[in-house]
Amino acid sequence: MTFATPTPPIETQPIDRVALAALTPERFAAQYQRRGLPVIITDWLQPDWDWNLDYLCDQLGSHEFLLRYYGKERYQQDKRQWTSIGSGVKTHSKPFSEYAALLRSREAHEQDIYLAKCSIQNTPLAKTEAVQTICSQLSHLGLTQPASSLNLWVGPAGHVECLHYDPMDGTLIQLHGSKRVVLFPPSQTFNLYPYPFYAHLRYGLRLRSWFSRVYPDQPDFAAFPRLRQAMQHRYDVVLGPGELLYIPAGWWHEVTALGDEMACSLNRFWRVYPTPRAVFFWGRWRAYLGSLCAVPNVLVQVAVALLSSQRQQKIKEILQML
Ligand SMILES: O=C(O)CCC(=O)C(=O)O
After folding, report:
1. I need a surface site. Which of 11, 61, 85, 301 has the fewest CB within 10 A?
2. What is the model's pTM?
């Protein structure tokens, strides 16, 4: 694919970076949560913790996870040609130790294989002191109404989780390696060319209307002229080990694992507070409308899975996609 216009100078604006100890639930709510503003909060890791591959293998070795096989060609393609995205891409279930071997041999880097958004709820990791501490630190911040369990993200350096927003508030905690996050506020949704919500009628939940069709690092202004406006509102941050990024509902984010090795993070989604921020956020209703359009397609997939000889595996894949 060729891009018509070279990358313009990007106006980056700062996002607050605050130590966890400097925040109270009241201060977090008043300065960031109520206003729906992102913030980086530091000091989440104890000095002797390292969430490297050896540690993860000790905790998760034989536990099975669904891996996303993105494939190395994906980001060379025009996103308008994509027929799957995020958890809608091809998946395979493997024990963590086998995935670790793919990371060590760099096959995961070459084929862009990602362990994305996998719940740790029923794994030994959930019971560790490290995770218990993280959970109590989150509640000290006033985050007490989770909308998901804690999810693990482990992937090769260089992997890009492409530009999308979530209909809930999110907290992304970096545990090993670093990630660059490009952010745009919800006001830029129209200028970021999301897939239309009715695309779900054809693609079910394989494609998602809360993903963007643009590449923020290779902007094609001829095809997406309004992207020029969005670029004026772009924020770039680097999240290092022990840092948490609070991503309020509707904030667009593209996440790239930096370095040469692998990156590991935990995230959790939260009910949007205060409620009017959720009710008056059009992107949330747009996402629900998209999901509603996906229902007939998902029902057909379930029927096909039930008739298949690999019924259990296929149903697991559909549940993971949901
Ligand atoms: O870490 C990643 O690759 C993506 C994380 C993400 O999209 C999120 O926390 O909402």
Report:
1. 11
2. 0.92
172 lines ligand 1 (CB under 6 A): yes
Instruction: Report residue 166 CA to chain centroid gap.
Output: 8
∠ CA 215-216-217, nearest 5°, is 90
**So what CATH class is 17-321?**
mainly beta
Q: Give the side-chain half-sphere CA count within 13 A for 234.
A: 23
The bridge status of strand 39-42 relative to strand 17-19 is parallel
**Residue corresponding to tokens 């109590």:** 136
Pocket test for ligand 1, best of 265, 266, 268 (most atoms within 8 A of CB): 265
Whether ligand 1 lies within 6 angstroms of the CB of 287 is answered as no
Q: Which residues contact 152 (CB under 8 A, 6 or more apart)?
A: 65, 115, 117, 118, 119, 120, 125, 264, 265, 266
The token duo for 34 is 């109520």
Burial code of 75-106, b = ≥16 C-beta within 10 A, e = fewer?
beeebeebebbbbbbebeebebeebbebbeee
Phi first, then psi: give them for residue 249, nearest 5 degrees: -50, 135
CA–centroid distance, 104 to ligand 1, in Å, is: 22
- CA gap 67, 70 in Å, rounded: 9
Name the DSSP letter for residue 8: P
Q: How far is the CA of 280 from the centre of ligand 1 (A)?
A: 24
Domain boundaries, the chain: 17-321
The owner of tokens 């700062």 is 14
Q: Output the CA angle 261-172-246, nearest 5 degrees.
A: 140
